[in-house]
Design a protein that fits this description.
By secondary structure, this protein is mainly α. It contains 7 helices and 3 strands, in the order αβαααββααα. A 3-stranded antiparallel β-sheet has the order 1-3-2. About 12% of the residues have low confidence.
Length: 187
């Protein structure tokens, strides 16, 4: 049974089976994958003795060994898929690690981003990250041309609210001075 499952795993790159069989298959097939890194007549004959399938031995030494050449071990992955309907046996998929294209692409995109952590304070961490990002980009641009544009934008933002505040501020003191004069006259 294990030699048939190992041959199927090598030919199809993934096999759906129970967890117990997958764990036994892992112990059976990983030494064969290690032997396939050394392409000699002796290692081919040893693998054929375990697999008893010419096509799987050819596939193992021609294609699979090239993919796993740089990997020091851990050639297979077991992904649990749930329970079988008839007898409630725990099912899984055992696959060769270097052949799952979906997981390889998601792993490369996941490592591209920065690590996100949850911290107390929520927005403080993101504001600090934004200020670090803005200060990191500012020195990269030409300081002579970028600085006046940034200052002009900052002044424009502050002038708009300031003008509305100034009109309210001038009205308020006039009323308070009138009330102060009235109170002085009353005394």
């Amino acid at each position: 049974m294990l030699s048939n499952m190992a041959a199927s795993l090598i030919l199809h790159k993934r096999v759906s089976t129970t967890v117990a069989k997958a764990k036994a298959l892992r112990k059976y097939v990983e030494p064969l994958l290690t032997k396939s890194k050394n392409d000699t007549t002796h290692s081919r004959r040893t693998c054929f003795a375990y697999l008893q399938n010419k096509e799987s031995v050819k596939e193992l030494f021609d294609e699979v060994s090239v993919k796993v050449a740089n990997r020091p071990g851990g050639y297979t992955r077991i992904l649990k898929t749930g329970y079988r309907l008839g007898d409630n046996a725990e099912m899984c998929v055992i696959e060769l690690v270097d052949y799952n294209e979906d997981m390889l692409t998601t792993a490369s995109t996941a490592t591209g981003g920065a690590k996100r952590t949850r911290r107390r304070g929520g927005k403080k961490g993101s504001d600090a990250a934004n200020t670090e990002a803005s200060t990191a980009t500012a020195p990269a641009t030409d300081a002579g041309t970028a600085a006046p544009a940034v200052e002009a934008a900052a002044q424009a933002e502050t002038e708009t609210p300031a003008s509305s505040v100034d009109t309210k501020a001038t009205d308020a003191p006039a009323e308070s001075t009138d009330s102060n004069e009235e109170t002085k006259d009353a005394k």
